[in-house]
Design a protein that fits this description.
This protein is of the alpha+beta class. The protein has helices spanning 12-28, 39-49, 103-111, 136-145, 183-190, 195-203, and strands spanning 32-37, 55-60, 69-75, 87-93, 120-125, 130-135, 148-149, 152-153, 155-159, 171-178, 207-209, 212-213, 226-229, 233-243, 249-256. The strands form 4 sheets. Strands 10-15-14-13-11-12 form a 6-stranded antiparallel beta sheet. A 4-stranded antiparallel beta sheet has the order 5-6-4-9. α1 (12-28) crosses α2. The chain is globular.
Length: 260
């Protein structure tokens, strides 16, 4: 049975990368620490290490409920410890009385430093703090060069991982009936938008599936997918139910707060 048959074609390069990691750990008897992975990538890593492989995997993103986490691949005789994940955490000092900082502003500013998205974990914004996690090997660079976000001056201050404050996200169960599993059709029903509004949102790269921008309205949605629309929150496809008499599909989803 092919490794690829249960995954989408655009995920095959990542599968190849994970396979290389596993071979390195198994052949060289050493650990492999990845950059931060989104939940879909974590699922792929878990799937590939769960097939009788001598290599184990563990994930940590700075807090127990962190969404973006680094993966540690290790031989089965090693006991993984949190220190092996090599993380650093920051809290931003900025004029909070006059500025409201948003997730896109902080992420955009961090990426403008010339670092990859994989170097950063969750960005946590609450009523009284803006915090984020990064790989330890990029922490000094971030501390020295991160000085502006959303046109506001910022100063990153290191904090302990135990000081991270993950905001609680409200979730709502949703059930809709869709005529097809096309991205535009599913998004239209989940977010109660007209098809005329949904298609341009997708084509303008404002919709993500599994944390990746997806600009094809005909993209087929599957069980377990996470859909996010900029500024309108996220929906996880929990289950694809039966079909109605008219041949439509009953879709169960979980709507989660605001998108990141």
């Amino acid at each position: 049975m092919s490794l690829y048959e249960h995954f989408r074609k655009d995920e095959h390069p990542f599968i190849d990368q994970v396979t290389d990691w596993l071979e390195t750990v198994e052949n060289e008897y050493r650990t492999k620490l990845t950059d931060f992975l989104d939940p879909r990538q974590q699922f792929i890593v878990t799937s590939l290490t769960g097939q009788g492989n001598a290599v184990r995997c563990a994930f940590f993103g700075g807090a127990d409920k962190a969404e973006r986490r680094r993966a540690l691949l290790y031989p089965d005789y090693i006991e993984p410890e949190k220190s092996l994940f090599e993380l650093a955490a920051f809290e931003l000092d900025f004029p909070s009385k006059f500025v409201r900082m948003t997730h896109p502003q902080v992420l955009g500013a961090l990426l403008s430093l010339g670092l990859k998205r994989g170097k950063f974990g969750d960005i946590m914004i609450s009523s009284n703090a803006v915090q984020f996690v990064t790989c330890a090997d990029t922490a000094d660079y971030v501390e020295q060069h991160f000085r502006e976000a959303g046109r506001a001056p910022v100063l990153p201050k290191r904090i302990e991982l135990s000081e991270l404050k993950l905001p609680d996200e409200e979730t709502t169960d949703v059930q809709v009936t869709v005529s097809s599993l096309r991205l535009d059709t599913v998004t239209s029903e989940l977010y109660r938008l007209s098809r005329a509004k949904t298609k341009p949102l997708i084509q303008q790269e404002k919709v993500k599936v599994n944390w990746k921008i997806t600009d094809d309205p005909s993209f087929r949605i599957e069980e377990g997918d996470m859909i996010s629309v900029r500024g309108m929150g996220r929906c996880k496809i929990v289950a694809l139910g039966g079909t109605t008499r008219k041949g439509n599909t009953v879709l169960k989803a979980e709507k989660i707060g605001s998108s990141s």
